[in-house]
Design brief:
Elements: H1 2-35, E1 39-45, E2 62-68, E3 87-88, E4 103-104, H2 106-109, E5 121-127, E6 142-150, E7 170-187, H3 191-196, E8 206-215, H4 217-229, E9 231-236, E10 249-250, H5 251-255
Antiparallel strand pairs: 1-2, 3-4, 5-8, 6-7, 6-9, 7-8, 7-10
Length: about 260
């Protein structure tokens, strides 16, 4: 009788222990399975982003999505707050997760340069400081290009030019929006002047700068013509820049 009682108690204890172990194992398996489903916020590319785009300009080009942890690629980032001053090292395509390794310091690529978007080519122009915002344009910026012309002689009456230009020897035209600056080479401010300047104002650049931009061959030809026979001005764009197609500006247009 006593032996049967002890046997029953032992069997009961073994059953309880087995049940506890089974429940513990199942709970651990559930936790292990759920680890891969933990929601994670990541940045997803909304539209094609060319190489060389500044992180400050990515705000409206990416979106935040919540994905299972198992679906998140290693190195994907969730915010741009700590990525300031960097640029995209390659073209980014819609739908891809934004990887931190694709955002680099421009100097890590080639000193002072950013990659050339696929299909474009580089062309360098030497421009005075006042034509490049006092020398504040740098690699990775996106600019609008303007060209001004002053004809030395009479313009042929049969020349294929806009009607508003005919009769005027000076005019300014907007050539392009969204031109990527891939490199800027310019002498640093004079050391003595820099050390003497203590009011925090922007230092004046020393002389002209070599500004390299990425263009199609056809657009490069027009910009070369503008530099060769006229003058060029670059204005810096932001992600909120309004873009229009203004008519050619002449003295007649200015006086209206």
């Amino acid at each position: 009788m006593k032996a049967r009682l002890l046997g029953g108690i032992a069997a009961l204890l073994l059953a309880v222990i087995g049940t506890v172990l089974l429940v513990t194992y199942i709970q651990g398996a559930d936790k292990r399975a759920q680890q891969g489903l933990d929601p994670v916020n990541v940045l997803i590319v909304k539209e094609r982003i060319p190489a060389g785009t500044k992180t400050e300009d990515l705000g409206n080009k990416v979106k935040t999505e919540t994905l299972p942890q198992s679906a998140v690629a290693p190195g994907t980032i969730s915010a741009l707050n700590d990525q300031k001053g960097k640029v995209t090292s390659v073209d980014l395509q819609p739908g891809e997760q934004l990887l931190g390794l694709k955002l680099v310091n421009p100097n890590e690529l080639v000193p002072g340069t950013v990659p050339v978007p696929e299909g474009l080519q580089e062309q360098t122009f030497i421009l005075a400081p006042e034509r490049i915002m006092g020398g504040r344009i740098e690699a990775g910026d996106t600019v609008t290009v303007f060209a001004s012309f002053k004809a030395d002689g009479d313009i042929p009456s049969d020349a294929d030019i806009p009607a508003e230009v005919k009769g005027w020897k000076q005019y300014t035209k907007l050539l392009y929006h969204d031109v990527l600056v891939t490199a800027v080479q310019q002498a640093a401010p004079d050391a003595e002047k820099k050390s003497a300047n203590t009011d925090g104002s922007v230092q004046l650049p020393n002389g002209s700068a070599y500004v390299t931009v990425a263009l199609s061959d056809a657009n490069a030809a027009k910009m070369v013509f503008g530099a060769e026979f006229g003058t060029l001005y670059l204005s810096k764009q932001t992600d909120k820049t309004a873009k229009s197609q203004p008519p050619v500006t002449t003295l007649g247009g200015e006086l209206k």
